[in-house]
Design goal:
The protein has 318 residues and is an alpha/beta fold. The protein has six helices and twelve strands.
């Protein structure tokens, strides 16, 4: 009888206080462009959201501007009261798949994705009141092609570029998380007219898809996180570089698949919500077996004579 009553009492307590609610997903149309209708999914957990307006993360998936969709699980953010907006965008390289594309085609695909991303960002800001979003805590997050496009949107805003005109004067995202992200353009070196927001990079030191350092060519140049955090260090912009030594492009999805949930949440809470001014770097070296994509041949970046070795990570400011 005692055990039965205890079970009933626990059941009543769960009914009164509730177990953790499942995150809610709502879908909204934000643009029609030619034959493409673009949507965003809004993910949030009502049981985790605080009173008043809340932070939001705008997520852009990867896939080489050729593949992918906006679906996904975002409990690593909704569990800490952050809303997530996962966006559609047009893919300009579907005819090439994962094969190399001409530079002008890649450049056009990036610009098309940038246009869609910034339209989605403006749509989120427009609905901030109805969705209880703190416009001062809007973050961007992206994987591979999405990580490149979201970072390039921040670069455009910092330099008063054409896409920055879609946002209120002086507005800047509150944070950026890139999974194998970087910047691709025709500049020989990056120049920031204004300081960007705090940034977190997850990257493999031997990533041959999106370089860890910098890869210049006669056409498009690729600037990876090792190059970028050197600039952030000089500008005294907060950052956190999480580098997997000898890791490849697996870092484009491994962190948000459960492996680095704590680090992601720490960045959001400390860098964005609390506004701490930190510069950090984490090097992970797996003594047993590094995480690699199938067929990967590691470049041992601890050997300075190894071909393709990235430049050393600049020291963090103390």
């Amino acid at each position: 009888m005692y055990m039965r009553n205890l079970t009933i009492a626990v059941g009543l307590l769960l009914c009164v206080y509730g177990a953790s609610a499942q995150p809610v997903r709502e879908t909204y149309q934000f643009a029609v462009k030619g034959t493409d209708t673009l949507y965003v999914d809004r993910h949030y957990d009502p049981s985790r959201m605080s009173e008043g307006n809340t932070p939001v993360m705008i997520y852009m998936y990867g896939g080489g501007w050729a593949f992918g969709s906006r679906g996904g699980r975002f409990t690593y953010l909704t569990d800490i009261g952050v809303q997530v907006i996962s966006i559609d965008y047009r893919k300009g390289l579907t005819e090439y798949g994962y094969n190399p594309s001409p530079p002008e085609k890649m450049e056009a695909a990036i610009q098309m994705a940038l246009d869609d991303l910034t339209d989605a960002m403006a749509f989120v800001l427009k609905n901030a009141g109805a969705w209880r979003i703190d416009t001062g805590k809007v973050m961007l997050e992206g994987s591979s092609a999405g990580g490149i496009t979201t970072l390039m949107a921040i670069y455009d805003i910092c330099n008063d570029g054409p896409y920055s005109k879609k946002f209120p004067a002086g507005w800047m995202p509150a944070g950026y998380i890139g999974y194998a992200g970087g910047i691709i353009n025709r500049e020989q070196d990056l120049t920031w007219a204004k300081n960007p927001c705090p940034m977190m990079f997850f990257h493999g030191s031997a990533d041959s898809t999106v370089t860890f350092n910098v890869n210049r060519s006669d056409a498009l140049n690729v600037f990876g996180p090792s190059y970028i955090i050197d600039q952030l260090h000089a500008m005294e912009v907060p950052y956190w570089l999480y580098c997997e030594i000898d890791g490849d492009h697996v870092l484009s999805y491994k962190p948000y698949s459960g492996y680095n949930t704590h680090e992601i949440q720490t960045f959001v809470e400390k860098y964005v919500i609390q506004g701490l001014q930190l510069q950090m770097k984490t090097e992970e070296y797996n003594l047993v077996e590094s995480s690699h994509l199938p067929g990967f041949k590691p470049v041992h970046s601890r050997n300075p004579e190894a071909e393709g070795t990235p430049n050393p990570i600049p020291p963090a400011k103390r």
